[in-house]
Write a structure and sequence with these properties.
- With 217 residues, the protein is of the alpha/beta class.
- Strands 3-2-1-8 form a 4-stranded parallel sheet.
- The two termini are 30 Å apart.
Length: 217
Amino acid sequence: MSAEHTNPGPAVSGVVAIIRLREGEPDDAIATALLDGGVEVMEVTLPTPGALAAIRRWNTHPDVLVGAGTVRTACDAGAAIAAGARFLVTPTTMPDVLAVAHAAGIPVVCGALTPTEIDLAWWHGAAAVKVFPVSALGGVGYLRAVREPLDDVPLLPTGGVRLEDLVPYARMGCVGVGVGGALVSADLVADRRWGTMTERAAAFAAAWHEGLVRRDA
């Protein structure tokens, strides 16, 4: 393991809800709906209007772990950390972002897709590696093949993750999954269908738990 590999800060694991909105600032009802469904880890992507303010507000809740997503530069990282982000998620492996985060004791989940990219992210000090977009290369089947030689790397498949994928991902030892539109879609937010969002969150949380139980059985 790299000397830089200190994996600081809180663990990013389980179902990670990705909030990526193009219009309008995230309503606090989103965090409440997800939490009511049992999803406690939330990633607010920086291009979302009002992302930093949402991160600042939501992290005041004691049961929620909120981080910033789509962090691409050291400036992005600094702004997100100043807003209270408790973890960062990047689309690629950016050493400048890792340096800023490590200095602040904040874990980074780096994005990667190929085995080489995944291993490089890990050796550069990622706390976990977001395998993205995993569905583009076969989803569960691709992840299983990649994990075989990289079983010491905490993997967090993201991109097109379906409800039925959660049990196999948990059983094969993934640290978590990133779920975007299947949990927090623009339509649900626009229509303020918080009850539906809670139902979906509960289904994803239950599927993840089932996978963990079956892995340990």
